[in-house]
């Protein structure tokens, strides 16, 4: 494994669109070549070298490349977006689209992330030590095929629109969430360890949600069916089992209607 | 002899009434009387008589005062400032014609700007819901002639669209609705007792911000399932009764407004409303329509979708493709995140309508306002360029709230020397091309376009 370290040298005036900060773009390049990779700040073409000092050469392939950003990226978008392998670690915050459309590899953000973290993700792992803003693991605007696979773990709180149009994969919010969890989802799993304000599973067709805390406003389309003992993300507990969203369309399997499942810790 | 002009369009609210009659003075300079319009529309026309209307651009001076300058100087400043910016933001278009919107698209592309319109603080979420879930809509004519159950959800046309209820939704006698109001059942869903709610047969006074739950309850009842005793502050019996009325309608029409689009959940509220509309079509005919605010705010959605593929929040800074993602490329978010370095406000008032923090960020950079009148955005701007008033002294195409295009007339002569939006933006575009040493690309939407004067000669050159 080869590690490339980027050290921020200045804060972008607008936002830096760093689509090229991925193991895939770095693979097979030395530090100098990496510094010349293109980024955008508004309509101006800039390079990674304009904003970071680069040390270390990348591995031959994405899988053999680790990227470490030794500093804050509050104004840097698209870190690790569309990556397929390798790792990215940010020792600070990151802006929008962290791991968006990601297919594989690992991202670890030690601070907070802004919105659209892991949107339309297909595989790999994202770990955020801090908070996330809105649209974690959500579909891109207008796309009814959302997150398909992979895992997103947010250790802090998250905003609204978690796993909208989700088809597969897992999202774990260890803190609280605001509104709209798994809206329109047709698969996948969302685990919220804290409380949720409301709109959990609205228009949901299939898939699973676990909530450990309280749901302040329950969707009227969810109906309690039974109580179950489960082990969820390493915790054993008793959950109230709800099915829904009864107002939404649902497919049939072997003559039985398939509903989405919501497990609320009893 | 004063002249009577009939079939005039009113350039104010989304009802876009096209039955206005205006009496103008002999010399075509003054509006004497306005008939048929509501008080807002009447005032809008009368306002054009105001002798203090700005006739020249005004530039902010070093001492903070505004000084009148000539148009070429203002055009040069606007072109240079937008080209120099890394990411200019162009916002507005609540009150201008489609010709102006098409012209501004050229300068937006040339300067790599973000192009946004008032939908961003209004019905933008409705667009997002339409992307996700479709838009089973109809025209206002259909609503007038067919709808016997009309639902006003989070909107108050009695104040915001004064003639909407008399022309299209509650009172008019239509082909299948010959008894007018007597034949229509009106439902209002609003946390406040608005004047529209007072007209309604049933007013569902829901808890503010719980529209999504209520839509879900409607859908759940419609599917034959039970719901909790109270949802969003409304009793189960009331919900069941409302659903029954909608289900038994011959034609149910849902109008929704900013009570849905700009409370928590935003696009999801509309999304659920669209799902409900679709569900109701299993039983009867049901249609849904956004109560668009301005007379031509559906225009940029049409014009820019045709040009760029997106209706609003269009980031053209990439140069190769348009990128749209509200939350990132929406005006208020861009301003709050300090992501733009030049702001152009056109035919809207960001000074009055944006959050103060957003305006403070925008004010750090060049701030240009294009507007026929003085407003808050013109008074805080570095440059204010006056233009003609679309629909009053400049004709043009507008899209009504149901996306029906209407040709609006000019009723009086424009102020001498003051250009229309289209002419101004075309001149800015020409100047930008001069500054960047590039050839302008004119795609003429109509043959009688005014600028440049001789379009065929330009294209052949
Ligand atoms: S209802 Fe609207 S469009 Fe009609 S006259 Fe009044 S302001 Fe003008």
What would you note in describing this structure?
- The complex is a heterodimer of chains A (266) and B (461).
- Chain A has 266 residues and is mostly beta strands.
- In chain A, 5% of the residues lie in helices and 39% in strands.
- The model of chain A has no long low-confidence stretch (mean pLDDT 96).
- Chain B has 461 residues and is of the alpha/beta class.
- Chain B has three domains: 44 residues, no CATH class; 229 residues, Rossmann fold; 167 residues, Dimethylsulfoxide Reductase, domain 2.
- Chain B contains 19 helices and 21 strands.
- In chain B, a hairpin with a 5-residue loop joins strand 4 and strand 5.
- The longest helix of chain B is centred in the last third of the chain and has 16 residues.
- Chain B is globular, with a radius of gyration of 23 Å.
- The N and C termini of chain B lie far apart (47 Å).
- Chains A and B meet through loops of A and helix 4, helix 9 and helix 12 of B.
- The site of iron/sulfur cluster has 14 residues of chain B, from helix 1.
Summary of the model, kept short:
The complex is a heterodimer of chains A (266) and B (461). Chain A contains 3 helices and 22 strands. With 266 residues, chain A is mostly beta strands.
Using brief descriptors, characterize the structure shown.
heterodimer, A: 266 residues, mainly beta, 13-stranded mixed sheet, 3-stranded parallel sheet, 3 helices, B: 461 residues, alpha/beta, Rossmann fold, Dimethylsulfoxide Reductase, domain 2, 3 domains, 9-stranded mixed sheet, 36% helix, globular, binds iron/sulfur cluster
Strand proportion of chain A, as a percent range, falls in 35-45%
User: What is the makeup of the main sheet of chain B?
Assistant: 9 strands, mixed
* Whole-number total of structural domains of chain B: 3
Distance between the termini of chain A: 46 Å
Largest sheet of chain A: 13 strands, mixed
CATH topology of the largest domain in chain B: Rossmann fold
Overall strand count of chain B: 21
Count interface residues per chain for the largest interface: A-B, 37 and 43 residues
Strand order of the largest sheet of chain B: 5-4-19-18-17-6-7-15-16
Mean of residue pLDDT of chain B? 93
Q: Which ranges of chain A are low-confidence, i.e. pLDDT below 50, for 5 or more consecutive residues?
A: none
């Amino acid at each position: 494994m080869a590690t490339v370290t980027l050290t921020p040298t200045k804060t972008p005036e607008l936002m830096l669109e760093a689509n090229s900060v991925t193991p895939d773009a770095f693979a097979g390049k030395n530090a100098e070549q990496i510094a010349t990779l293109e980024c955008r700040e508004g309509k101006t073409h800039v390079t990674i070298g304009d904003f970071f000092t680069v040390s270390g050469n990348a591995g031959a392939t994405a899988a053999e490349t680790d990227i470490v950003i030794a500093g804050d990226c509050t104004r840097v978008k698209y870190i690790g977006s569309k990556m397929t392998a390798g790792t990215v670690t940010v020792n600070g915050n990151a802006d929008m689209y962290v791991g968006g459309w990601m297919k594989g590899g690992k991202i670890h953000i030690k601070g907070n992330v802004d919105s659209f973290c892991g949107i339309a993700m297909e595989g790999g792992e994202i770990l955020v030590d801090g908070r996330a803003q809105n649209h974690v693991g959500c579909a891109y605007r207008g796309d009814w095929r959302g997150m398909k696979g992979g895992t997103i773990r947010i250790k802090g709180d998250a905003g609204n629109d978690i796993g909208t149009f989700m088809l597969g994969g897992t999202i774990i919010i260890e803190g609280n969430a605001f509104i709209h969890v798994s809206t329109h989802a047709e698969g996948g799993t969302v685990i919220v360890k804290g409380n949720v304000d409301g709109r959990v599973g609205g228009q949901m067709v299939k898939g699973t949600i676990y909530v450990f805390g309280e749901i302040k406003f329950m969707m009227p389309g969810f109906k309690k069916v039974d109580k179950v003992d489960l082990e969820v993300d390493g915790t054993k507990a008793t959950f109230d089992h709800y099915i829904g969203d009864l107002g939404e369309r649902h497919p049939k399997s072997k003559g039985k209607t398939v509903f989405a499942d919501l497990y609320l810790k009893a | 002899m004063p002249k009577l002009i009939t079939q005039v369009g009113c350039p104010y609210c989304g009802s876009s009434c096209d039955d206005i009659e205006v009496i103008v003075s002999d010399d075509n300079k003054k509006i004497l009387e306005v008939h048929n319009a509501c008080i807002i529309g009447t005032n809008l026309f009368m306002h054009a008589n105001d002798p203090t209307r700005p006739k020249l651009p005004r530039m902010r001076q070093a001492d903070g005062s505004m000084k009148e300058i000539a148009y070429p100087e203002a055009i040069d400043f606007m072109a240079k400032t937008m080209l120099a910016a890394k990411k200019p933001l162009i916002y507005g278009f609540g009150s201008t014609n489609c010709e102006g919107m098409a012209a501004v698209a050229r300068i937006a592309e040339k300067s790599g700007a973000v192009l946004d319109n008032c939908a961003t603080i209004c019905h933008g979420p409705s667009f997002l819901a339409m992307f996700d879930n479709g838009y089973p809509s109809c025209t206002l004519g259909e609503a007038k002639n067919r709808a016997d159950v009309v639902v006003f959800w989070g909107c108050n046309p009695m104040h915001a669209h004064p003639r909407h209820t008399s022309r299209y939704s509650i009172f008019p006698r239509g082909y299948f609705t010959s008894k007018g109001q007597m034949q229509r059942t009106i439902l209002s869903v609003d946390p406040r007792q608005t004047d529209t709610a007072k007209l309604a047969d049933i007013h569902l006074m829901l808890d503010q911000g719980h529209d999504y739950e209520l839509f879900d309850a409607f859908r759940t009842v419609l599917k034959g399932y039970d719901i909790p005793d109270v949802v969003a502050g409304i009793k189960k019996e009331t919900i069941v009764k409302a659903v029954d009325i909608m289900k038994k309608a011959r034609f149910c029409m849902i109008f929704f407004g900013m009570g849905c689009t700009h409370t928590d959940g935003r696009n999801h509220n509309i999304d659920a409303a669209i799902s409900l509309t679709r569900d109701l079509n299993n039983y009867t005919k049901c249609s849904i329509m956004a109560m668009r605010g301005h007379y031509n705010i559906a225009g940029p959605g049409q014009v820019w979708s045709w040009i760029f593929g997106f209706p609003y929040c269009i980031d053209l800074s990439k140069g190769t493709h348009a990128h749209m993602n509200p939350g990132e490329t929406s005006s208020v978010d861009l301003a709050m995140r300090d992501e733009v370095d030049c702001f152009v406000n056109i035919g809207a008032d960001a000074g009055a309508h944006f959050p103060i923090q957003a305006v403070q960020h925008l004010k750090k950079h060049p701030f240009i306002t294009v507007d026929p009148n003085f407003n808050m955005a013109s008074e805080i701007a570095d440059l204010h360029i006056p233009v003609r008033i679309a629909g009053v002294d400049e004709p043009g195409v507008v899209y009504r709230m149901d996306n029906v295009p209407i040709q609006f007339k000019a009723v009086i002569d424009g102020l001498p020397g003051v250009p229309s939006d289209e002419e101004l933006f075309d001149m800015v575009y020409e100047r930008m091309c001069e500054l960047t040493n590039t050839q302008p690309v004119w795609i003429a939407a109509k043959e009688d376009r005014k600028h440049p004067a001789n379009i065929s000669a330009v294209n052949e050159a």
